Amino acid sequence: MSNPASPPAVDVLDERPGLTFPPGFLWGAATAAYQIEGAAAVDGRTPSIWDTFSHTDGRVLLGHTGDVACDHYHRLGDDVALMAELGLKSYRFSVSWSRVQPGGTGAANPQGLDFYRRLVDELLANGIEPWLTLYHWDLPQPLEDAGGWPARDTAARFADYTTLVADALGDRVRYWTTLNEPWCSAFLGYGSGVHAPGRTNGADSVRAGHHLMLGHGLAVQALRAVRPTAEVGVTVNLYPVDPASDTPADSDAARRIDGLANRFFLDPLLRGSYPEDLVADLSTVTDFDHVRDGDLAIISTPLDLVGVNYYSRHVVAAPVEGVEADPAPSCWPGSEDVRFVTRGVPVTDMGWEIDAPGLTETLRRVHEYTDLPLYVTENGSAFVDSLVDGQVDDVDRLAYFDAHLRAAHEAIDAGVPLRGYFAWSLMDNFEWAWGYTKRFGMIHVDYDSQVRTPKSSAKWYASVIRRNGLAAQ
Predict the structure, then answer these.
(1) Between 76-86 and 456-467, two packed helices, what is the crossing angle to 10 degrees?
(2) Do 232 and 176 contact (CB within 8 A), yes or no?
(3) How far apart are CA 186 and CA 189, in angstroms?
(4) Which of 53, 149, 212, 385 has a 20 to 30 Å separation from 96 between CA atoms?
(5) Could you say which DSSP state residue 63 is in?
(6) What's its catalytic activity (predicted)?
(7) Torsional sign, CA 64, 65, 68, 72
């Protein structure tokens, strides 16, 4: 079994005056079902697209799968005890659609719901606010076989599933996220194919994005019908997008990528429309005939909050004249020839540039769209960790968190209604197409023994939570 080691009783931060966050600021950590639960064929759970994808040769590095992952399904109590010892005020987890509603249609699976009932009850017993995400990329395989997210009916099935979960857990769960990062589901899953289900069709990726948002809107309505007092939002992954130079061509490249990365979702969700320039950019890909009258009104159903996942910045440049675009399938339909530029700044083990000021920019930008409360629902970094004498001294990750929390505080000082922050991730886990080769966790997981070891970043984060703030620099 796991060994929930306690963080040190003393603060690892000094006591000099520093930055204090608002009273009631919600400090949390996040995970996703397929990445940690394991128990892939236990108690009635059936395959999702990620089960199928990870079991397909060549899709996931080293052939890794989520069959066991962190075995959280069988170690729920120990894992919640670790959360409590870290002092988490909230825990953001996702529900496996295939565990709750095998096949994606029909009645709920009682054993699947019971797992999440136990999780919620254990969290509440430890004073931790449950934050439930309904969809984190794990579509039931039969729904994919019927067309997946490019098919309109999937949105309706998502609303049905939402009702089942709301009926079972809505009396104890206050905070709800419908979708996690629909950009990844749509454009990595159906465009470049590097994520499940591994399809590579630009028009399908655009349809998938629309139907994901339609499913979101229908799910918000379904939730409110069952639990009118629920706090409901959606989580989008956003990036500042900068041109590599001040030339008109590079500026236009930035506009195009910003349209696909950010405005494709922000505008329909918060303004009830697609940007005209984005529709024009995609005219060679789709004529948007999948958008029906009334869709955008459903998609823009009023929310209670917005979740922002932030990891890095994009810097882009115009195509080089005479150089053909990479023929590989792209997650940037209609803009496949835009070049992504590296700047020579420090990067994480994922190769993502570390850019804390981009979090401030992103939060301020979302606030320009809405006065709704905002939450950083994911922020974190992968680095190469070493377990030495029972300790993991992940100083790079600690520094990453510190810098990004200071950027979050700067956004608050600028008037952004930021209400909480969720570190990604609580523990090392199955990192999608990278398998178990990338570690994002504050808690180290030995995948052979399933022993959990809090890293230095976890102990530091516990001190931040206790103080509700950061030390002076």
Answers:
(1) 60
(2) yes
(3) 5
(4) 385
(5) G
(6) Hydrolysis of terminal, non-reducing beta-D-glucosyl residues with release of beta-D-glucose
(7) positive
Enumerate residues 6+ apart whose C-beta is below 8 A from 228: none
Task: Give the phi and the psi of residue 48 in degrees, each rounded to 5.
Answer: -105, 175
Tell me how crowded residue 371 is: count the other CB atoms within 10 A of its CB: 10
Catalytic, 129? Answer no
Nearest residue to 137 via CA among 184, 178, 198: 184
Distance of alpha carbon 431 from alpha carbon 386, whole angstroms: 18
Judge whether 99 and 112 are in contact, CB under 8 Å. yes
State the DSSP code for 60: S
Catalytic residue among 122, 378, 410, 431: 378
Residue type, 150: P
DSSP H or E segment with residue 216: helix 202-226
What confidence tier does 323 reach under pLDDT thresholds 50, 70, 90?
confident
Identify which of 72, 66, 108, 67 has the alpha carbon closest to the alpha carbon of residue 93: 72
- Structural contact between residues 353 and 343, judged by C-beta atoms closer than 8 angstroms: yes
Burial of 287 (0-12, 13-18, 19+ CB in 10 A): exposed
Residue with tokens 């994911």: 378
Alpha-carbon distance of 20 to 366, in angstroms, equals 23
Largest interatomic CA distance in the chain: 63
Catalytic residue among 37, 181, 410, 431: 181
- Give the DSSP letter of residue 186: I
Q: Return the DSSP state at 388.
A: B
pTM given for the model? 0.96
* Residue 378 annotated to the active site: yes
- Tokens at 322, concatenated: 């005479």
